[in-house]
Specification:
The chain is mainly alpha-helical. It has a single domain, classed as Arp2/3 complex 21 kDa subunit ARPC3 (Orthogonal Bundle), CATH 1.10.1760.20. Helix content is about 65%, strand content about 5%. The protein has ten helices and four strands. The two termini are about 40 Å apart.
Length: about 325
Amino acid sequence: MSAATGVVAAAAVAVSLRGARRELDERTAPLAGLVAAFIFAVQMLNFPVAAGTSGHLLGGALAAILVGPYTGVLCISVVLLMQGILFADGGLTALGVNITDMAVVTTVVAYAVFRGLVKALPRGRRSITAASFVAALLSVPAAAVAFTLIYSIGGTTDVSLGKVATAMVGVHVLIGIGEAAITALTVGAVVAVRPDLVYGARDLRQKLKLRVNGELVDVPPVAPVPVAARSHRKVWAVGLVTSLVLAGFVSFYASANPDGLEKVAADKGIDQKAEEHAAADSPLADYGVKDITDARLSGGLAGVIGVGATVVAGSAVFWVVRRRRTADVSPVGTSA
């Protein structure tokens, strides 16, 4: 299953790299790396959902709505890669499972639900926020179902599939409520100040119509006025500072209870063959800086390093993809 989902994940990333070329324009490209860093930071904030169980943001819905579904898959993939390499959080052999489940499934389900609701609801900012809430809410149990299907094929313990499915979906419905609240609040906040920067809100404006010979016809679309690069700086700065504060300070107060998957794995015995991460002795393993004894300082510094590494890695990926887009659309005889 690790090999099979690795192939699925690699194919999804390859498709997303091509699709992201269309999404990463002058508005989306500067923010994509920041979105990945913000999701990394918020994923450190486990919130309690039931007795002895916590949850955290998956982020697929948030990324898809803010920067587009293809770019969203890449955002979550970058976050998962950083977590596995730097923080011993998720084995590299499990990266295919994690990307397939947490990046592909959540993003596809969330964006499909979001687009359907946006088309059905009245045009407006409240509709964007409401659609974001529902899309995020449904994406989390969808990921739980996908994990159950993966477990049904590759599980190595003799545990009833029905028990695993019931436990996984049940707890992740509760986690989905937290995911929905975080997603809706974030999307709503950005839409309120800069709706032009939200990929999912680009058709928010009502189409203008003209009466011609007694009939209403759509006004031909007008090319958008290019947005100056400096217009993104305030949003980018606020987003980066917020991410650093969440990862470097607020994360200390996150719930210490195991998340939904860890809790179900322990309760149902499907973690019996779990092994220590190969990078368990790395300097940043378990979101702490090695040899720093103060827990608050160690965790906060690890969070800040994680945000910095993610924004750099994500921005580098999206810069390269953006350059490829520029090269593809440049006229013959000009340099990209």
